[in-house]
Input
Amino acid sequence: MRKKEMIAMLLAGGQGSRLGVLTAKVAKPAVAFGGKYRIIDFPLSNCINSGIDTVGVLTQYQPLRLNTHIGIGIPWDLDRNFGGVSILPPYEKSGSSEWYTGTANAIYQNLDYMETFSPDYVLILSGDHIYKMDYEVMLDYHKENQADVTIAAMPVPMEEASRFGIVVAEEDGQITEFQEKPEQPKSNLASMGIYIFSWPVLKEALISLREVHGCDFGKHIIPHCHGMGKRLFAYEYNGYWKDVGTLGSYWEANMELIDIIPEFNLYEEFWKIYTNSGILPPQYISANSVIEKSIISNGCEIYGEVHNCVIGAGVTIGQGAVVRDSIIMQDVKIGDGCVIDKAIIAENSEIGKGCTLGIGKEIPNKLKPSVYSFGLVTIGENSKIPDGVQIGKNTAISGVTEKYDYPDSILESGETLIKAGERL
Output
């Protein structure tokens, strides 16, 4: 029987509700990042760079874009006869149709898939973090310690520790305690949601807890293994790792890519980030355009000014337009004479001529103050903004909007404009 030493299970079913209109029609791992990539490209590239050639991608929420993007895994060299990449949506079983109710429940529902490879180890990953990690080094650590479970953990500032699952470990890395979002944290080592399990241990835990609704790794599986006296170790990671779960952190992580010396480098030869990037013509930069400190993807036509931006593929920026500190995703058209400050504009949107985005005072968003903040203008995909309108800060727009949607041609700061039929 053929087998694999370690397989990866990549959880990519999340809705990412804190990204607002950006994830209304697409799962969070499929959201564009860094111009030509999608968030899921990072863990997938980590797998292939770490020598892992069998990856199960567990999808659930709005999986179409993700499925199309991954395809049969050619860009990641994951089109294999045995192993490779497999998309694992929830499916109907005899008698009932079950959605994945928690991270561990999703893995439990795919026990048969994992059994196919009779692995020694299973790597559990999240599909929505930006980082580079060699999982092989983590596996060596797991073996050296004869661990049953190894949890990747990174130091966070003590004052932020209560937001995370915290591991308390001894000098040798053995975990003595696990605290889920504790009010009084006993350490500052935060779990990154990256786990290596010895297969028999994972299997036993999943089967034992199969009746637990919403079964989750942090809340249920890890405490169960600890309670059973298993050997749990913390693998300390000190590199760049970003959870791009909010619009602010998503915007920041993109902007960090264009620093003079980026903390997260997309240009390293030895650790390439692979993606499915389509066949596009080269970019065109006109004689009158000005571009500084920006990432410009293939197929763009730039006639205006671009300062400190991440521009996706196939974007057109009209004459006299000025775009600053913004993320513009693929196939967006920005009309002549627009002025855009600190915006995130999703795919296939169209901004009319002479529009101004990101003006006025910073007033909290009335509808979802915790989502639409950071002074950003957020525009969902396939949206249309008519000519000559002004849009304030902490705003969100989704859908094809008309002139009459903007009283006095203005959408004030803190307002939200979602057209009928569009989702928040």
